[in-house]
From TrEMBL:
InterPro entries: ABC_phos-bd_PstS, PBP_domain, Phosphate-bind_PstS. It comes from the Bacteria. Belongs to the PstS family. The keyword Transport applies. Residues 37-327 form the PBP domain. Keywords: Phosphate transport, Transport. This is Phosphate-binding protein. The lineage of its organism: Bacteria, Bacillati, Cyanobacteriota, Cyanophyceae, Nostocales. SUPFAM superfamilies: Periplasmic binding protein-like II (SSF53850).
Length: 359
C-alpha cells in the first residue's frame, strides 16, 4: 500500500506507513519547537544578512524567535565562553585556546562570505571645487594603503597615489584614517593581509582583533566606521562591503599580488574563495594574499559558532533546523545584500558538521 506525495511539482510514491511516520515526526518536531527563543551575539560583518535571515525564518516559523546582537567577534566569542548566549558569530572562527574553555564543546560553521573594502570620502565640501570629486574606483597600490595605515602617507594628493591614478585630480586634503575600536574579526582579517604583504606592518603592528593603530580615530562596529567615513572629508577606513554598498560609499580598487587593481565584486571575491580549503575538522581557514590574477585580496568567511551540547535539546534542534535553512534557502539573499553564496562543497561540509550538535 502506498501514498502519493507532491513536493515542488514532483510526485513521489511512498509506503503509507512511511508517510504516517513522517507526519508524526513533523508533528512532534513542531510541538517541540513551540515558542522557542534563541539569543546570539558577535560579528557585525554578517549582521545585515543575519537580520534578513532571522526575519525571513521567523515568518516561516513564527514560534521560533532568534535574536542577534552585532557586538564584535571578540565580545561574541567571550559570551559563548561564558555561556550567556546560545550561539555566537566570528569572522575569524575560534582559536583552539578559546575552544578549550568551552566545556560544552564548540562547532564552527561558515555560513557566508564577503570582502573587506577600503572606503573613502572625497566628496567635495562646500568650499571645494567639484573638479576635485573622486568618486570612481580610486586605485591604491599595496604599499600605498599599508603606508596610509602606518601614517606615512598623510595627504590625498601624495605623489604615489597620483602615480597610480593618472588623469585623476586629487584634492590637497589630509587623509583621516578610521579604524575599529572594538575587538573585531574584520580588523583581524585586514591586519592578517597587511602583515602578509608588508614586513614593516608585521613588525610594527602585527595582527589581531585589536591592534595598536599608528594613526587615526576609531568607531565601534562596521556601522560606526561607516558613519565616521561619511562624516569626515578625507576619511578612509575598512568596512565589510555590504556597509559600503548600503551607504553608497566610494571604495578603492586594491592592487593584488599579481599587480592588478581589483574591486570587490561577486566574481572577484568568489575567485579568492576558490583557493580557500576548509579543513574537515573545524572548517576554519583563511587566505591572506591570494595569488589568482583576478582575485580581490581581502576576503573571509564568517562563522556561526554553536555549542556541541545543549542542556535543552530543543534549542539544539532549532539551531540545526535554522542552519540547514540558512545554507540552502538563506543563501538566496546573499548576492542581493552583497555577500557571496556558499559553494555546493561548503554547503555539504556545513550540513555534515551540524549533525555533531547533540540533541
Amino acid at each position: 500500500m502506498s501514498a502519493q506525495l507532491q513536493f515542488k511539482g514532483r510526485v513521489f510514491f511512498l509506503p503509507l506507513i512511511a508517510v504516517l511516520l513522517n507526519i508524526a515526526s513533523c508533528t512532534a518536531n513542531n510541538r517541540n519547537i513551540n515558542r522557542v527563543s534563541l539569543v546570539g551575539a558577535g560579528a557585525s560583518f554578517p549582521a545585515p544578512l543575519y537580520e534578513r535571515w532571522l526575519s525571513d525564518y521567523n515568518q516561516q516559523n513564527p514560534n521560533v524567535e532568534i535574536n542577534y546582537q552585532a557586538i564584535g567577534s571578540s565580545a561574541g566569542v567571550q559570551q559563548l565562553i561564558e555561556g550567556t548566549v546560545d550561539f555566537a558569530a566570528s569572522d575569524v572562527g575560534i582559536t583552539n585556546e578559546q575552544a578549550a574553555k568551552i566545556k560544552r564543546g564548540v562547532i564552527a560553521l561558515p555560513l557566508t562570505a564577503g570582502s573587506i573594502v577600503l572606503a573613502y570620502n572625497l566628496k567635495p565640501s562646500a568650499q571645494q571645487s567639484p573638479q576635485v570629486n573622486v568618486q570612481t574606483d580610486l586605485r591604491l597600490p599595496r604599499q600605498v594603503y599599508v603606508d596610509i595605515f602606518l601614517g606615512k602617507i598623510t595627504n590625498w594628493n601624495h605623489p604615489k597615489i597620483a602615480a597610480a591614478n593618472p588623469g585623476v585630480i586629487l584634492p590637497d586634503l589630509p587623509i583621516q584614517v578610521v579604524h575599529r575600536t572594538d575587538g573585531s574579526g574584520t580588523t583581524s582579517v585586514l591586519t592578517q593581509h597587511l602583515s602578509a604583504i608588508s614586513p614593516e606592518w608585521k613588525s610594527k603592528v602585527g595582527t589581531g582583533k585589536a591592534v595598536a593603530w599608528q594613526v587615526g580615530i576609531g568607531g565601534k562596529g562596521n556601522e560606526g566606521v561607516t558613519a565616521l567615513i561619511q562624516q569626515i572629508p578625507g576619511a578612509i577606513g575598512y568596512v565589510e562591503y555590504v556597509y559600503a554598498k548600503q551607504n553608497k560609499l566610494s571604495v578603492a580598487a586594491l592592487e593584488n599580488k599579481s599587480g592588478n587593481y581589483i574591486t570587490a565584486t561577486p566574481k572577484s571575491v568568489a575567485r579568492t574563495l576558490e583557493a580557500v580549503k576548509l579543513p574537515t575538522d573545524n572548517l576554519i581557514a583563511f587566505i591572506t594574499d591570494p595569488t589568482d590574477a583576478q582575485s580581490y585580496p581581502i576576503v573571509t568567511y564568517s562563522w556561526l559558532l554553536t555549542y556541541h551540547q545543549y542542556p535543552n535539546p530543543v534549542k539544539g534542534q532549532v539551531l540545526k533546523n535554522f542552519v540547514d535553512w540558512a545554507v540552502i534557502d538563506g543563501q538566496k539573499s546573499s548576492l542581493e545584500l552583497g555577500y557571496i553564496p556558499l559553494s555546493k562543497k561548503v554547503v555539504v561540509q556545513v550540513q555534515s558538521a551540524i549533525n555533531k550538535i547533540a540533541d
